[in-house]
């Protein structure tokens, strides 16, 4: 067509007036656009009609973001359900469908070590020993009298104590 500029994208060519937004049908021209499954959208139509919506704020997610349990989130909207701190880029866990930072999860849900009474989170040195209703961090699983490690050896429960074979035979 005379006096019409040719536009090229991804190996295809269009007349300037034929390269239209799939949403509003206006010519895109030299404006920014977003390709989506062989369709092209001006930025406004992409945000209004096509872009995924953040599960928290419901605004269009146009760059970055993250996916958690099949839902998309802005990085700043993905927050701990306990304290409200941002979880993007840090270790977190969940209780049911709700995400928590390690600190909140530990204080709200984690079992406490029978020796040191701090949470057993499963993060870092997360190995632990469980016996009946009690749990211990591996480094805390020691004889209550002589403090020898009981990992890999027999032990004897004595009310709220755990004893190695030597200390148990001293009784």
Automatic annotation (TrEMBL):
Q: What are this entry's molecular-function GO terms?
A: actin binding; transcription coregulator activity; zinc ion binding
Q: Which UniProt keywords apply?
A: LIM domain, Metal-binding, Repeat, Zinc, Zinc-finger
**One Pfam family linked to the record:** LIM
Any one cellular-component term (Gene Ontology): nucleus
The chain positions of domain LIM zinc-binding read 52-111, 112-171
The name of this protein is Four and a half LIM domains 3
Q: Which InterPro entries match?
A: Znf_LIM (IPR001781)
Gene Ontology biological process terms in this record: actin cytoskeleton organization
């Amino acid at each position: 067509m005379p006096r019409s500029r040719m536009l090229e994208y991804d190996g295809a060519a269009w007349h300037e007036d034929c390269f239209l937004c799939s949403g509003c049908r206006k010519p895109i021209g030299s404006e920014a656009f977003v390709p989506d499954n062989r369709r092209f959208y001006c930025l406004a139509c992409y945000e209004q009609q096509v872009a995924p919506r953040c599960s928290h704020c419901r605004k269009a997610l146009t760059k970055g973001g993250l996916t958690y349990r099949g839902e998309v989130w802005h990085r700043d909207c993905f927050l701990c359900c306990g304290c409200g701190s941002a979880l993007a880029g840090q270790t977190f866990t969940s209780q049911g469908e709700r995400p928590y930072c390690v600190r909140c999860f530990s204080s709200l849900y984690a079992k406490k070590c029978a020796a040191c009474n701090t949470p057993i989170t499963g993060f870092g040195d997360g190995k632990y020993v469980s016996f009946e209703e009690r749990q211990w961090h591996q480094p805390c699983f020691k004889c209550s009298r002589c403090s020898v490690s009981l990992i890999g050896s027999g032990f004897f429960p004595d009310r709220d104590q755990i004893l190695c074979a030597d200390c148990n035979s001293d009784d």
